[in-house]
Amino acid sequence: MDFSLSANDRERVATLREWGREHFRPAGLRADRNGAALPVDDPFFRTALGLGYGRATWAPPGSQPAPHPVRTKSAVLNVILAEESSYWDRGIGVAMPGPGLGEAPILIMGTEEQKQRFLAPFVTPDKPMWGAFAMTEPSGGSDVANIRTRAHKDGDHWVLNGAKAFSGNSGRAEWIVVFATVDPKLGRAGHRAFVVPRDTPGLVGFRHEKKMGLKAYESTSFFLEDCRVPAENLLGGESHYTQRTGFKGAMQTFNSGRPAIAGMAVGIGRAALDELLVHVRESGLQNDSRIRDRIDTAQRKLKAAYLVALKAAWMADQKQANLVEASMAKALAPVAALEATQLGMDVLGMTGAQGGTLIEKLYRDVKAMDIVEGTGQIQRVVMARQLVQLPN
Amino acid sequence: MIDFSTDSDIELIADAARRFAQDALAPHQRTAETARSLPASTLEQARDMGLDRACWNERHGGSGVNWAGWIQILSELARGDAAAAVAIDAFGRSYDALLQAGQDDWIERFLIPGGQATRHAVVVHDLHDVLRGHASGRLDGTLPWANTAQADLVLVVHPGGVCVLAEGFSLENVPGLALQAAGASRIRFVHAPVAARREDPALAQAILARARLRQAGIMLGVLEAASTYAREYALQRVAFGKPIAHHQALAFLLVDMNSAVAQTRLLVQEAACRLDAGDTDLDACNQAFIQACEAGHFVGPNAVQVLGAAGFMRDYPVEKYMRELTALGLALGGADAARRSLCRHVALPDAIDFLRTVTENA
Question: Residue B148 forms beta bridges with which residues?
Fold first, then answer.
């Protein structure tokens, strides 16, 4: 058993810390103060491309992918890097160019030809480009088995109809991985995943949602109105779904993200505590035992949640079933992080309420972490199914 | 490098401890509680397995099991009977305190005089400095509760340091909230001569923090036992046409109990690994203990709650778990005392770093 970072991992974290201080936090604060996502042509994205962001983790057969700053083959390292990255700005993390959340389903379900077609442009991009992922709908998020967007085959095309919501970067993406159902009665077996290029007719009604926090990235809703997608854009092809692995593929996407999301939440909470420590010193409150106790408590809860996230990720790396641990991390970390930011606000008092401080921004940012990829309540349902066989 | 796997040698010992706990301790825990002592044969079996000296250094006749390993063993024992875990851990606890305070000299002088470990040594924590006379070399006063029925050597850890006493004290039975099988006594000191002492507040805090980690390891075992028992009961007990575990209010409660145990386990393991790596920053030990106390306050009463009226009865073990979790916390001052330790003795950090290394600490 070992809880220390390897020298290599420490080096990666140190690099990320430098970038975070120099680039990520200033860009995140700028977006927050402007109340709008960084535009596509913002110079920050060129900088990010230069740092190694914007690339796929996939590489054509026979070649090695360039190392990605925060996406590695190690789930543990991904949690560690996610934590450090989010410490500086979580919204910037989502805003980063690249195939984003859309890459995982392509890697898991896609054919070699599809990987080549959709991910090759991201191998060595010469300009910032985005991919996107759209599962959530206005009528529901975590209940993916009941998605309502319909897909039906029409000749050599699939026709999609429905609405998607809260999809990061969809409005600026080259393509969006859209999940739909061929028949809601089939439940999970009816699911299909399509790669829908940006200029596809029927992909309409893009609306940038106005968020409480995480303003650096665009959250978008859109409609699919008789949106005709070539049959070759069905991820994995028909045979993939006759084996009924479609939904499982989608769930793999979700599960692999939960420890990392937990790490992100911890990063936000840690940022709030560090900022609070500065304020406590400047205000001469360091010997106030009530505040000290609250800081210690917040720190302990964040640390516990972080350890659960690392354990869940380690289990994933060891190919051990980690459904309970992954959901536990996702349920615990955002609550601990919210508590840390709330503590910061409590100590700042009126200064916190006036707005414009980092802690106030973190307080608005962090709440999303208890919602994305399944709320804390959904995570409890997932855990209860495993622990006490709670019926669906 | 982050790694949650357990050393195979430790796993073997922990397996043996698990079997011992489930076969020899758990079935007799109520009898032992009523008798206010563990059967002699049980303690003999523990000694035969080397559990009494497992975490002693090899040069003193121990097995040299590290902190991570001993914590795992302790929690296994406590799953069978927390009082037995306390009684068995008393050997290691006194060894660690004496070694910290007086190195090999105190071990050889007080614990294994003439090479024979014949003394029943007890460590007590005078957290509120109620005993008087440290300076004069003779102690007076009363400590209201200690988990032991006998002692021929007492190590008093007080805020200012540590002192050792071999005479001038007496033990009286007290009812005790829990852990009676390990003994429950009031210790009265009457002009008791101090045989050796070290005035060093930092040393006292270090011994206390390390004891808290051991206690958290025991509490972890009880937490696991309580959480598991409540879950299994809730799957069998039917109300309104389905197992009570399938009513979401209870399902979520059981999930949260499980999560509280998991967090405790990880904080305890992390603190143990820090000690094994030579970390001198002991706030992780105090954090683990606070976590165990808070988890105890949550899991213990809720395990009883899940069983309803049955949980209130001594026919089921959950009321015992609830009492034990509170008693184990209180033995070392409870979570509030540990919070005070953190506030008083740990400098406010410049920045939070959950995974800072031992090297970085140094």
Answer: none
How far apart CA B122 and CA A372 sit, in angstroms, is 52
A225 neighbors A202 (Cβ within 8 angstroms): yes
Distance from CA of B9 to the nearest CA of A (A): 13
The pLDDT confidence band at residue A208, using thresholds 50, 70 and 90, is very high
Residue A245 φ/ψ, nearest 5 degrees: -110, 5
Q: Minimal Cα–Cα distance from A30 to chain B, Å?
A: 24
Report pLDDT digits (tens) over A222-232. 999 999 999 99
| Selection from B214, B153, B145, B177 nearest residue B323 by Cα | B177
Contact B352 A380 (CB under 8 A): no
In this structure, what are the phi and psi dihedrals at residue A98, rounded to the nearest 5 degrees? 130, 175
Three-class DSSP category at A373 = coil
Q: Which long-range contacts (CB under 8 A, 24 or more apart) does A200-204 make?
A: A200/A227, A200/A228, A200/A229, A201/A227, A201/A228, A202/A160, A202/A226, A202/A227, A202/A228, A203/A176, A203/A227
Give contacts of B 180-209 with A, CB under 8 A. none
Residues of B in contact with A389 (CB under 8 A): 235, 245-246
Give how far the C-alpha of residue B355 lies from the chain's centroid of Cα atoms, to the nearest Å: 25
Write down the ipTM of this complex.
0.93
- Closest alpha carbon to B101 in B201, B187, B191, B188: B201
List of long-range contacts for A28-33, beta carbons under 8 Å, 24+ apart: A28/A88, A28/A89, A28/A90, A28/A91, A28/A92, A28/A216, A28/A361, A29/A89, A29/A358, A29/A361, A31/A91, A31/A92, A31/A95, A31/A215, A31/A216, A32/A91, A32/A213, A32/A215, A32/A216, A32/A361, A33/A356
Residue for token digits 């740990």?
B346
Task: Name the pTM for this structure.
Answer: 0.93
Please state, as a whole number, how many other Cβ atoms lie within 10 Å of the Cβ of residue B244: 21
C-alpha distance from A270 to closest chain B C-alpha (Å)? 7
Q: Looking at the predicted structure, is the pLDDT value of residue A358 above 60?
A: yes
**Contact status, residue B332 vs residue B48, Cβ threshold 8 Å:** no
Asked whether A270 and A340 are in contact (CB, 8 A), the reply is yes
Q: Is some CB atom of chain A closer than 8 A to the CB atom of B235?
A: yes
A262 pLDDT higher than 60: yes
Is the CB of residue B122 less than 8 Å from the CB of residue B153?
Answer: yes
Query: Cβ–Cβ of A300/B287 closer than 8 Å?
Result: yes
CA distance B319 to B313: 7
Per the CB < 8 Å rule, is B259 touching A328? yes
User: Is there a catalytic annotation at residue A103?
Assistant: no
User: pLDDT grade, residue B169 (50/70/90)?
Assistant: very high
Cβ contacts of A385 within 8 Å, gap of 6 or more? A392
Residues in A touching B349 (Cβ below 8 Å): 277
Q: Do B342 and A277 touch (CB under 8 A)?
A: no
Instruction: Please state, in angstroms and rounded to a whole number, the distance separating the CA atoms of residues B105 and B121.
Output: 16
The radius of gyration computed from the CA coordinates of chain B, to the nearest angstrom, equals 20
Distance CA A255, CA A142 (A): 12
Greatest alpha-carbon span in chain B = 70
Q: What letter represents residue A48's amino acid?
A: A
Residues of chain B with C-beta less than 8 angstroms from the C-beta of A3: 2, 269-270, 273-274, 355
Secondary structure of residue A244 in the 3-state scheme? coil
SS3 category, B351:
coil
Q: How far apart are CA A314 and CA A309, in angstroms?
A: 8
For B260, counting Cβ atoms within 10 Å of its Cβ (0-12 exposed, 13-18 middle, 19+ buried), the class is: buried
Distance of CA B353 to the CA centre of its chain: 27
User: For residue A12, what are its two tokens?
Assistant: 């990666």
DSSP state of B101: H
Tokens of residue B32, six digits:
């032992």
